[in-house]
Amino acid sequence: MTFFHRIPGVGLTLINMELNKDIINYRKETFGGLIINLKTGKIFKLNKTGYKVFLVLYKGIKSKEELIRKLQNDFKGNRNQIKTDVKTFIKKLVENGFFIRK
């Protein structure tokens, strides 16, 4: 997946970056799901919405716009709020080593 904007506070552009599937394990739970960074051992608890966004990212998406469109259809939310929430979520994934350069 490729993103074409800067993530504030991270200092990089997510162009030519993708989820590092080699270090990720995940599982669905009643509250949403868990994602585990196998390299660091950190476990992240996600609510149902966060887990859904993670799965969309994990399964692959071609562009930020495609992701926003899919989430907007799935959650019937405000486009600007979805964009803000996705940026925040991806920033956390980047900060915690889930993305790598292609």
Automatic annotation (TrEMBL):
InterPro entries: PQQD, PqqD_sf. This is PqqD family protein.
